[in-house]
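Section 5: illustrative case.
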């Protein structure tokens, strides 16, 4: 069986064909410009491929409420060309197959839960720390949508006393994305994040912000595992620092077996940066 998968991102659209085991059979990448220019290329790729259904893991904010008139739309995104754009409608009309739809980060989490390091878990969180910060949540075996969908990246956290930088978020003086996304690191330290690998104070501060956010996630959502992906998390030295900060901030309050081994609790994404597109394959399978 052949499934279509689209990982819709702010800079590129990854289109792939996959099978029921999450195997990616082929994939192409199309730059994200405007819907008028980008969508016809996506449709062109999938048409005549005989896919059973398609899964779309999409940048947001998006409307996931099936009872809403704007279900399947990208809504209030800062990428203005895509604001109020009916991405699901466009795909459905053109390809006439069932469309599964969720956030990019819920997609990545679904990939990890189905085929990766969180296999079989019912409660887990996936955080991406990249150009922005986003979080996908599964709670009681269901991807969490709620009123809209979680916006984990915009949780308010305190700015560290040692931090001479500023939040880059246009909405919040002191949110996780504004303080800890890749562009914030680069603005604060005046260098590309990957060129700061050896500067310990960069990663200590970064671990303080991410560690704080993870304690908040843990207190509110009680996940069985926390998975961290995105470009910034390629700095593997962050993992022990985040675990250390998490432990210190948690201060022994929650006592469970899972928290006794933080190496297994706070982990890197395990699917070789394919978690998003594999999650989109699973969205397609579930939409069939
Ligand atoms: P996106 O979030 O746009 O999908 P990425 O997850 O690759 O893409 O994130 C890109 C951001 O991650 C850039 O802003 C950059 O600062 C940062 N980044 C990318 N690669 C690395 C790396 N090896 N080390 C540290 N930071 C990185
Ligand atoms: Zn914010």
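Designed sequence:
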């Amino acid at each position: 069986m052949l499934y279509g998968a689209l990982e819709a991102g702010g800079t590129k659209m990854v289109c792939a064909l996959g099978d029921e085991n999450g195997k990616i059979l082929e994939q192409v990448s199309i730059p994200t410009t405007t819907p008028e220019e980008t969508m016809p290329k996506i449709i062109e790729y999938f048409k005549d491929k005989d896919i059973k259904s398609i899964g779309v893991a999409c940048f947001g904010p998006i409307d996931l409420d099936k009872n809403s008139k704007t279900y399947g739309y990208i809504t209030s995104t800062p990428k203005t060309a895509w604001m109020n754009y009916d991405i699901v409608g466009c795909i459905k009309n053109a390809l006439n197959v069932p469309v599964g739809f969720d956030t990019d980060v819920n997609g990545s989490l679904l990939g990890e839960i189905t085929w990766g390091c969180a296999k079989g878990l019912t409660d887990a969180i996936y955080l991406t720390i990249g150009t922005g910060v986003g979080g996908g949540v599964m709670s009681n075996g269901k991807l969490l949508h709620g009123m809209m969908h979680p916006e984990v990246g915009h949780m308010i956290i305190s700015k560290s006393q040692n931090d001479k930088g500023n939040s880059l978020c246009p909405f919040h003086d002191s949110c996780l994305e504004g303080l800890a996304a890749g562009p914030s690191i680069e603005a604060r330290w005046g260098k590309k994040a990957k060129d700061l690998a050896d500067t310990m104070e960069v990663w200590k501060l970064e671990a303080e912000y991410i560690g704080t956010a993870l304690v908040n996630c843990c207190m509110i959502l009680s996940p069985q595992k926390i998975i961290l992906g995105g470009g910034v998390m390629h700095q593997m030295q962050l993992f022990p620092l985040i675990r250390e900060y998490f432990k210190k901030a948690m201060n022994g309050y929650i006592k469970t077996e899972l928290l006794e081994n933080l190496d297994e609790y706070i982990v890197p994404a395990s699917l070789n940066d394919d978690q998003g597109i594999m999650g989109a394959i699973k969205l397609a399978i579930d939409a069939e």
